[in-house]
Structure formats: C-alpha cells, structure tokens
C-alpha cells in the first residue's frame, strides 16, 4: 500500500523531475528520470514489514504448539475414556455369570450397545478369553476372533493401544473379566477415534487468529501514523528528491518569461524572479521590503496587499500593459500571503485588436454569404443586401439596377469603363431603377422603391456605373456632384442627418449591373478606408448572386416563352366538350408538362395531358416534340393504347439519340430524357363513351352532375413512356351528360411536405361542388391545392361532356346489293331535307354512292351508313373489311379509280378509321349557313 502511495507521489512530482540543471541561455538539459527500485523504500514501510514478520512468526508458532498440544491431549483423553468404559462394563454386576451362561451374546449384546451409545465410544466388545466376540456393533462380526492384542489381558492385566482402523486413528483398551476366585472368564474391549475428542483445538484457533489480526491492525495503524507524519514533514520526498526539486524550482522560476511575485502575510515581498524585476525595475534589495515602498502602480499595490483573487487583470508598469493573476497561498494549509504572476501583453493587445477586427470582418462576410442570394430572384437578392448591410454596417442602403438587368438581360454597353445602361460621358443621364431600399427609419427623404432615377453624370452613382470605380463621400454637405441631381432633395437628405456615403458598383463577370449606396446617419464617424474595402467585398458577393439571378431570370423567361409557344394558345372548336384549362410554370424552373385538345373524326374529341421528366429548356423542347407526335398519331385515328405505344417508341429513340450525341460530343454525362408520363382519352358525344389509357400518369377524376367525385384509381396504368417492355391497356366508361372529366399533372397534387394520397383527397374535396362551370372548377381547384410558389409545373383540364342530340343522327344498315345504292341516296336526301341541308344533298349523295359501292364491291358482311349533323356534316360508311382504299390517278382506259378522287374533291376532309369489327370511311363537309343567316348551333 505504501509502496503504491510512493509511486503516486512520484507521478505527481513528475513535471518537476523531468529536467535537472540548466545549460547555456537557460535551456534545460534533458536528464532521464530515475525510477526507484522495487521493494520497500520508506522507513515506515520497513517498520511495517518487520512488524508483519513478527506477527506472522508468532501466529505460526502458536498454531503449531496448539496443534501438537491438541493431538497429545486428544490421544490421552481417548485412552482414558476407552479404559473407563471398558473397566465399567467389565466390572458390571453379573458380567462373569453372563460370560459363563449358555448364550452370552443374547445377554450381553443389548447391554454393550447401550453402554456404547451412552459413553460415546465407537465400540464395546465382550469376548471369551480366547478372543471370540460375544458382542459387536456390527452383528455380522459376532463370533469372530478379536483383531487386537489380548495376551496381557488374558493374564489379568489391562491393555491400551493405538491403532488405525476403518474409522481412522483410534485408541482401544482391553480389560479382563474376573470371577469371584480371580480367574479370567472373559474380556471387554472399548475403542474410540481420536477425532471425536480433538475439538478443543478448533475452539482455540479462532481466538488465536483474532489476536493475530488485532496485533496486525495495531501495527498497520501505527505505521500509517508514522507514514503520515513523515509525509507531512517531507512532502513525500527523500533528501535527494527534495534537492533536485529545489534546483528545478530555482531554474524554472528565473528562466520563464513570466513574472512571479510572492508576498508574505504582512505585506512584504518574499520573492521576485528575474522577469518580475525587469518588468517593475525593482531594486536589488527589494525582497524583504514592504510592497508599498517598492513604487508599484497604486492599483497593483492594492491588489498585492489585499490578497484578493484575480485573473488576467490589466495593470500598468510604466508604458507596459501587464496581465496579472493573483492567488492567496494559505488555501491548503500553506503559509499566509499571496503569489502573483505577470505577463507583458503590450504587443499582444495591439495584435489582438487587429485579430478581433479581422475575425469580425470575416464573420461579417461569412454571414453575408449565407444571408444574401438565398433565392434566384434579382429584386429579392438586392433587398437582402440592403437589409443585411443596414443591420451590421450602415444606417441606410439603396441598390439601383439597370432595367435590362431586371428583365434578365445584360446592361447595354454595361462593361466598366464604357457607357452603361444608357449613361454616357457626353452629358446624358444614367437611368437606374431603385430596386432595394432599407434603413433604420422610414421617414428619410430617399428615392422610393421602383422609381426610375436619371442620375446626372457627376453623381457618384453615374460615375460608378460608367467607370466601375468606388466613390467615397466622407461629408455629404461638402460634395457638390451628388447635389446636382436634385438640390432640394439633396438638402432634405442632409437635413435628415445622413452625413457620409459610399457608392460601390455591382460588378460581375466584367459587367456593371448597378450601384449600391451605403449611408450613415446615427453613427457619427464618417466612412473610412477599412469601411470601403468591406463594402466592396459585400457588394462583390452580392453582385455574383444578382448576376446569377439575372441569368436565371433570362433562362427562365426563355423557357417559359418556349413552353407557352409549344402549348395550345386557342382551343379548337368542337361541340363534344366544354373545356377549360390552366397551365402554371414552376417558380424555380420550367418543366415538361403539356396538354392538348384534339378534334377527331365522328364528332369525337381527344384530351391529352403529359409530363416530361426534368426541367428547363431541354424538357420544354422534348415536350414540344411529344405534342407534335401526339397530333400526328391522332390523325391516324388510333386507339389510346396504340398511340401510347408509338409515343413510348419515340421516347426510346430520343433517349438513344441524346446518348449518342453526348458520346459524340465527348460528354459522358450529357442530359438524357429518361421518360415521360401521359394520359390519352377519347370522348364520343354520340355514344357518351370515353376510352382512355395512361402511361405512369395520375388517374383522372370524374365528377357526376350531382357532384359525386370518383378518382379512377382502377384505371389500368402502364409504365412511363421510354421504359418499354410492357403493353398499355385501355378502359372504357360511359359518362352522363354534364359530367366533368378532370385531367391533371402530378404538380397539382404532390408537394415535398404532402404525399400524393393527401393531394388526391384534397382534389376530390375541391371538385365535389355541383353546378360549377369548367372555368369555375379550374379556379377553385388551383386555389385549394396550389401553394404561392409551386415547385413543379401544373397542367389542368376540366371538360364538361355534351351529347349529340338523337335528332341529328341518322343510321342505316345497307344490304350487300348494288340495287340498294339508289334507295340509300333517296333516304339520305330526305334526311338532309329534314335538317335543312338541301344545298349539300347532291354532293352528299355522290360521296355516299361512291363509298357504299366500294364497300359492296370489295368488302363483306354488313354495311352501315351514318350521318352526323354537328359543326360539319359527317358521313360514315363502315364494313367488316380491314382493307383501306387509296387515292390514285386513274388512267384513260381504267374503268375504276375515279371514285375516291371525286370524294376528295367534294369533301373537306376524309379518311379511314379502323375498329375492332373492321373499318369506317368518313368524310366531312362544311355546313351551309341557314336561311336566317345565323350560324348553326
């Protein structure tokens, strides 16, 4: 224990023992630390070891003596007990008669066992003079010969012997049984194991060990008291260590560049090291004198005499600034007094001031980088610069930019050193628009936000915009150039308290975008050179952000313009649907959302909505290509699933072309459109049926006339366009007249903080209002679901269904007989007369005659004819053949080939539409104006 304590003391002294002695110039010499040898080193430890040895020796001797004495006493006790039991049993009355009896065992066995149990011996055996046992605890041994020595007992003497039997070390005694004549008639033997009588030593051993422990405890306490006293007197050090510590203390005290003063409790200087003498210019006999007599600064004298604790207090010593720390020395039982440490901080104070200034400046610029340019908005970025500078640098800040910058363009001739933004050196003003303004008060007569200010050539703003130079006006009332702009306004500004100004041009990429003006009013100090450099760095950071916002504004405007030019500007005229739409570009970038309304033959209308993956010009251009492709595929009058399949192939080819182009340009990371979503629906006002298919697009919504909303989530959905590998499926549903069919893109229902399911629920709630027009529905939906700044494009179509009146539909089934052509012509003429369309009866009869004749000649199965009176007259002839007629020039000798030529000449449009049963050949003719001159409904 004490050895461990000695090692801990060595570790605590380790900082003082690492060096011993000093060489030239006070540099310490390295000396390896001496490690004490293992074993007991202290006097107290040696005394304790000696006491421990003596106690252990006494304990061992006592234990040995006790064991030997116990063994001797146990054996003697065993002899006495066995002899007493044997003699008592042998001399019992009637023993000799029992021995001579006919059955000694029956008479003596119970008595022997009772005597054995009562006396506590291990056995009591009665036997004949020849050694044959009459009794034994183990009845199996009765009648057998006794194993011990009986010769002396047979002669009338007693025998006691020690032996080792089955029960261990034992003692047995053999006593003769004499009759009245003194003749030996039998023998009695009693035996007992020694361990039964050895318990006395066990009771004495704990007392012995307790006495040894008490002696050891007393030795430990005594040693601890001696150790404590020695440690208090020597602080745990031996003489060699104390000498070495003193040498270290003296060397370190006078070598460090930190002053040390030790003052006694009565105010006298006890010790002053070399550095303290140098700092205070103390006399050689300073030690021992009163502190008040040594010429210290009064503040320093008061601190040294008072004894109060202090940490890094600033005191003076002539022209020096000292950092003083003061502590009392009697806290832990030391002598009364105090110790003071001194550091010369004169140069450090000056350097610290510069460091603090630089650190504050760096922090200001860092915070500016975080606070300015948080959005890609020119006006917002300029306002952030003004607000940040007012809070930390100036009292009023204004930012004036060229109008072209606000439009996303570069200033006209805006490079530094040339004319910029309309400004020139020939006396013309420089027009800049007040874009941002911030100040500590709102009642200062500065130009308001949004005002176009025409700065005169001598104004600091105009000079900075033209030349790119910084202008500093320390005293505004003394500078005449800026007052030429508006003398009355300038006087009001000076009267409001603004007295100093810095004008810094906003330059980015070699182009001056505008001017920032920093003004002071509450702070009395004018702007200095350090303020100029800080203002330049602030404006430089802000100028880059403003230029980025300007370039983004230009690209965003171009993308929006391109996208809007690719979207339908005016919806086509048709009677099947009453359509309203909305398109909103994203706040942060144009996407690839599009929609379309395409009239189809047979009075049908196709509704299309889609979304190209990605944002920017590339997505907008790809959207235009897809919209054109949809128009082209729609002219083929294909079903929705086939149109989506063709679009899927087109997207795959676009991806492939983009990838090859990127490789050819050496750009492995070129942008590639990876897909698009699309929903294509066809509504037929004759049958009121809507056929639709979708490729990865959100499901449409159907609002019944009574306001019930159904989101068609069960509509089969195919993979997005461009992935390929899976077919597309169509679904068909019947819509009541007046139903609203709602198509949209995911930007309407999906947000970063809102999942798509929640958005669809909100859409359903916004649509569940019967009686609204499509325009009102569009407004309500956007108001309920869109944030102020949408992060994605939104396309929305709301179409209210109409039904073609049955009276405007005529339908016939024509037998496959050429003789029926004339009857059909007559039936068609009557129907046209009923519709007041007699002016087109001749051409219509001619067209139908040719189409019906071709169907009878070249097709099989039933032939049907249908007339639809919509915005135009539509004639349809359907058959079960999948062969389509082609327009061609007939030769002079050809009998046929002229029918379709005549049809194309008389009809405005014509074409073929394939169905599941065959094909339909259709024509459209413009309806003549009714006799009242009003257009037909």
TrEMBL record:
Coiled coil: none
Membrane-crossing segments per the record: 48-68, 205-226
Subcellular location: Cell membrane
Gene Ontology process terms (BP): phosphorelay signal transduction system
Domain PPM-type phosphatase: 574-801
Regions of compositional bias (Basic residues) in chain numbering: 24-38
InterPro entries: Bact_Sigma-Reg, GAF, GAF-like_dom_sf, HATPase_C_sf, HATPase_dom, PAS-like_dom_sf, PAS_4, PPM-type-like_dom_sf
Record's signal peptide: none
Region (Disordered) location: 1-40, 408-433
Keywords associated with the record: ATP-binding, Cell membrane, Hydrolase, Kinase, Membrane, Nucleotide-binding, Phosphoprotein, Transferase, Transmembrane, Transmembrane helix, Two-component regulatory system
Identification of the protein by name: Putative membrane protein
SMART domains: GAF, PP2C_SIG
Gene Ontology CC terms: plasma membrane
Entry keyword annotation includes Hydrolase: yes
All residue ranges annotated as the GAF domain in the record: 367-556
Gene Ontology terms for molecular function: ATP binding; kinase activity; phosphatase activity
Compositional bias annotation for Basic and acidic residues: 1-23
Mode of membrane association: Multi-pass membrane protein
Naturally occurring in which organism (per UniProt): Streptomyces himastatinicus ATCC 53653
């Amino acid at each position: 224990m004490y050895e461990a304590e000695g090692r801990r003391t060595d570790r605590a002294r380790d900082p003082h023992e690492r060096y011993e002695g000093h060489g030239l110039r006070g540099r310490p010499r390295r000396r390896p630390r001496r490690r004490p040898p293992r074993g007991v080193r202290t006097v107290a430890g040696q005394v304790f070891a000696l006491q421990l040895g003596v106690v252990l020796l006494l304990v061992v001797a006592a234990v040995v003596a006790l064991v030997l004495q116990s063994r001797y006493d146990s054996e003697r006790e065993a002899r006495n007990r066995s002899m007493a039991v044997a003699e008592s049993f042998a001399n019992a009355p009637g023993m000799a008669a029992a021995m001579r009896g006919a059955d000694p065992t029956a008479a003596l066995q119970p008595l022997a066992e009772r005597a054995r149990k009562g006396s506590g011996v291990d056995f009591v055996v009665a036997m004949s003079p020849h050694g044959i046992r009459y009794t034994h605890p183990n009845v199996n041994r009765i009648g057998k010969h006794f194993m011990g020595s009986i010769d002396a007992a047979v002669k009338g003497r007693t025998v006691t012997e020690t032996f080792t039997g089955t029960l261990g070390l034992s003692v047995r005694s053999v006593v003769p049984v004499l009759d009245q004549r003194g003749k030996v008639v039998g023998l009695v033997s009693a035996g007992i194991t020694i361990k039964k009588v050895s318990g006395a030593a066990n009771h004495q051993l704990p007392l012995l060990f307790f006495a040894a422990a008490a002696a050891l405890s007393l030795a430990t306490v005594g040693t601890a008291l001696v150790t404590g006293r020695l440690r208090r007197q020597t602080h745990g050090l031996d003489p060699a260590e104390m000498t070495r510590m003193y040498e270290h203390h003296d060397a370190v005290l006078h070598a460090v560049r930190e002053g040390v003063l030790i003052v006694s409790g009565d105010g006298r200087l006890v010790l002053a090291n070399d550095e303290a003498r140098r700092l205070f210019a103390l006399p050689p006999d300073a030690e021992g004198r009163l502190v008040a007599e040594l010429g210290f600064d009064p503040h320093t004298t008061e601190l040294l005499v008072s004894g109060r604790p202090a940490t890094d207090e600033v005191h003076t010593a002539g022209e020096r600034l000292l950092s003083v720390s003061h502590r009392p020395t009697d806290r832990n039982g030391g002598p009364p007094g105090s110790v003071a440490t001194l550091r010369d901080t004169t140069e450090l104070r000056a350097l610290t001031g510069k460091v603090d200034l630089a650190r504050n400046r760096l922090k200001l610029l860092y915070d500016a980088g975080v606070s300015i340019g948080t959005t890609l908005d020119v006006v917002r970025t300029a306002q952030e610069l003004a607000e940040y500078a007012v809070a930390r640098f100036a009292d009023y800040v204004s930012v004036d930019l060229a109008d072209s910058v606000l439009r996303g363009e570069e200033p006209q001739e805006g490079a530094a050193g040339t004319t910029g933004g309309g400004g020139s050196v020939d006396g013309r003003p420089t027009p800049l628009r007040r874009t941002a303004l911030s100040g500590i008060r709102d009642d200062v007569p500065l130009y308001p936000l949004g005002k176009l200010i025409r700065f005169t050539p001598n104004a600091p703003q105009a000079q900075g915009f033209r030349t790119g130079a910084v202008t500093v006006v320390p005293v505004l009332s003394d500078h005449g150039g800026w007052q030429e702009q508006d003398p009355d306004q300038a006087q009001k500004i000076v009267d409001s308290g603004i007295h100093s100004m810095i004008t810094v041009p906003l330059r980015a990429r070699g182009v001056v975008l505008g001017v920032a003006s920093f003004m002071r009013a509450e702070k009395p100090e004018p702007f200095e050179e350090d303020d100029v450099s800080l203002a330049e760095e602030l404006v430089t950071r802000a100028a880059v952000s403003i230029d980025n916002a300007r370039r983004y504004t230009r690209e965003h405007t171009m993308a929006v313009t391109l996208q809007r030019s690719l979207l339908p500007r005016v919806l086509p005229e048709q009677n099947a649907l009453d359509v309203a739409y909305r398109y909103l570009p994203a706040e942060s970038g144009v996407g690839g959302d599009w929609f379309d309304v395409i009239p189809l033959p047979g009075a049908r209308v196709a509704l299309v909505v889609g979304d190209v993956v990605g944002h920017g010009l590339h997505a907008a251009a790809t959207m235009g290509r897809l919209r054109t492709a949809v128009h082209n595929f729609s002219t083929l009058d294909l079903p929705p699933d086939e149109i989506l399949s063709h679009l899927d192939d087109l997207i795959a080819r676009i991806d492939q072309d983009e990838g090859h182009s990127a490789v050819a340009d050496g750009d492995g990371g070129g942008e590639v459109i990876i897909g698009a979503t699309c929903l294509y629906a066809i509504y037929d006002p004759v049958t009121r049926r809507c056929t639709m298919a979708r490729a990865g697009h959100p499901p449409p919504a159907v609002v019944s006339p009574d306001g019930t909303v159904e989101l068609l989530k069960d509509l089969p959905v195919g993979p997005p366009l461009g992935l390929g590998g899976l077919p597309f499926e169509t679904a068909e549903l019947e819509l009541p007249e007046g139903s609203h069919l709602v198509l949209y893109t995911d930007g309407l229902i999906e947000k970063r903080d809102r999942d798509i399911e929640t958005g669809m629920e909100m859409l359903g709630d916004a649509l569940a209002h019967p009686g609204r027009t499509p325009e009102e529905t569009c407004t309500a939906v956007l108001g309920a679901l869109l944030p102020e700044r949408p992060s994605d494009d939104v396309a929305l179509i709301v179409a209210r269904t109409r039904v073609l009146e049955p009276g405007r539909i005529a339908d016939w089934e024509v037998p496959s007989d050429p003789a029926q052509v004339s009857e059909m012509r007559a039936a068609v003429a009557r129907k046209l007369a009923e519709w007041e369309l007699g002016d087109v009866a001749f051409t219509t009869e001619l067209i139908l005659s040719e189409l019906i004749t071709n169907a009878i000649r070249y097709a099989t199965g039933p032939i049907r004819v249908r007339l639809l009176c919509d915005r135009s007259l539509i004639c349809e002839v359907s058959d079960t053949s999948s062969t389509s007629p082609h327009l061609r020039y007939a030769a002079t000798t050809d009998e046929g080939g002229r029918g379709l030529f005549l049809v194309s000449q008389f009809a405005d449009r014509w074409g073929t539409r394939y169905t599941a049963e065959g094909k339909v050949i259709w024509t459209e003719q413009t309806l003549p104006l009714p006799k009242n001159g009003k257009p037909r409904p």
